[in-house]
Design a protein that fits this description.
The complex is a heterodimer of chains A (140) and B (114). By secondary structure, chain A is of the alpha+beta class. Chain A has five helices and five strands. Chain A has one domain: Histidine kinase-like ATPase, C-terminal domain (Heat Shock Protein 90, 2-Layer Sandwich), CATH 3.30.565. A five-stranded antiparallel β-sheet of chain A has the order 1-2-3-5-4, with helices on one face. In chain A, strand 2 and strand 3 form a beta hairpin. The mean pLDDT of chain A is 94. Chain B has 114 residues and is of the alpha/beta class. In chain B, strands 1-5-4-3-2 form a five-stranded mixed β-sheet, sandwiched between helices. Chain B is globular, with a radius of gyration of 12 Å. The chains are: A alpha+beta (140), B alpha/beta (114).
Chain lengths: 140, 114
Amino acid sequence: MSALHLEFDVAGDNFLSAGSATDRVKNELRKLGVSSADIRRVAISMYEGEINMVIHAGGGKAIVDIYVDKSVVKLIDHGKGIKDIELAMKPGYSTANEEIRNLGFGAGMGLPNMKKYADELIIESEVGKGTTVTMIVNFS
Amino acid sequence: MKIKDVAEILQGEILCCEEQADREVQAACGSDMMSDVLAYVKDQALLITGLCNPQVIRTAVMMDMICIAFVRGKEPTAEMIELARAKGITIIRTPRRMFSACGLLYSAGLKSGK
């Protein structure tokens, strides 16, 4: 059983609130005494995922389980899905439009950042049905 | 240098969290691309940016940064300032452009960090 279980609805149409779920998780991790280096890895990977859900999938759900030795973040959306996951993982590759780029994202760094900071990244996606991203960060 | 020194060097105006103007920043990151900030920032406490939207504040929160300087006179919205205040991030607005803002701070001894 996890020490802490959190669930969030990530709104797809609210760019202001994007990142608020990650912010909550960050605060909870701090309260639990997790090291700041580990908190940052969880925060960056989850935040990138949250942004992805907002800009590509019209929002979704974030389910977070924090254990003594790791965190498991699951991001579930019912968006358009990822056609070619290998291609999407390539740094610099992006399907984001101009509007998203103007917001400071869509540089093709989201998934590479998530891979860089999470110890394990699992992407399950079906075109037209949605995507589930699971990220595990082991605490040092 | 201190946050208040950053504001002075940039001839900028502090828009919130002035009470922590005596806090030290050792290094800074200048970028308009938040994904790059998330990818490359380590211990830089100051973000210099010309991008002006709520996710700039969120990004700074994620990276434990304590100060954001908006260049080119960008005007953060009331919502952004409120979020920054709630998170204890000082906001500076400066008419300087990115290149000169970075150059001035670098010349004054601010580093780019690890």
